[in-house]
Design a protein that fits this description.
This protein has helices at 26-35, 43-56, 62-75, and strands spanning 5-13, 20-25, 80-81. By secondary structure, it is of the alpha+beta class. The N and C termini lie far apart (27 Å). Helix 1 (26-35) runs parallel beside helix 3 and helix 2 (43-56) runs antiparallel to helix 3. Strand 1 and strand 2 form a beta hairpin. Helix content is 43%, strand content 19%.
Length: 88
């Protein structure tokens, strides 16, 4: 999978009303957490960035990177929609 592509995209609200990002792969997730994340760092987000970069390099699975991204979003208190059928 190129860039650690995910089977199901994650929609995350990034702070402003109506400011959403659709994340479809580990590379996009790592960039989002590094550049757009409303929280500077935390143990879960720091680990998630590393897992996502490992997925891009083929050292971790795309699904592991997706799970790590979801965990980081929850740590940051962000609203996420991991698939069309649920809203957390």
């Amino acid at each position: 999978m190129e860039h650690g592509d995910w089977n199901n995209p994650v929609i995350v609200e990034l702070g402003g009303a109506g400011h959403f990002a659709i994340i479809t792969n580990a590379l996009d997730a790592a960039n989002c957490m590094s550049e757009e994340w409303p929280v500077n760092s935390g143990p879960v987000v720091d680990e998630a960035v590393l897992v996502c970069l490992d997925a891009v390099l083929g050292k971790a699975s795309a699904e592991d990177s997706r799970k790590a991204f979801l965990d980081a979003a929850r740590e940051a208190g962000l609203s996420v929609r991991p698939d069309a059928g649920s809203l957390h």
